[in-house]
From TrEMBL:
It comes from Cardiobacterium valvarum F0432. It comes from the Bacteria. The lineage of its organism: Bacteria, Pseudomonadati, Pseudomonadota, Gammaproteobacteria, Cardiobacteriales. This is LysR substrate-binding domain-containing protein.
Amino acid sequence: MLHQLLLMGGGIGYLLLWLIEDDLATGRLVRLLPAYPERRHLSAKVRSMIDFLVEKAAGIAVCAQSGSAEAAQKRAISVASKG
């Protein structure tokens, strides 16, 4: 979902390299921070937040992949409201 948004010019995002390699090679996406530090030394709070967001995003992605845009939107709203 984020990948498609970025391809449409929807902003800046952080995605796995293997997912966007072709887009970088063809120029559809541009790497903005090539020297951005890896996540080797994250604080516990930051690591917890990343883990939380990944877990919540997985549920939204499952709804979106199943073809139910309405379910994905409801899931996203539910996640946002529960914080």
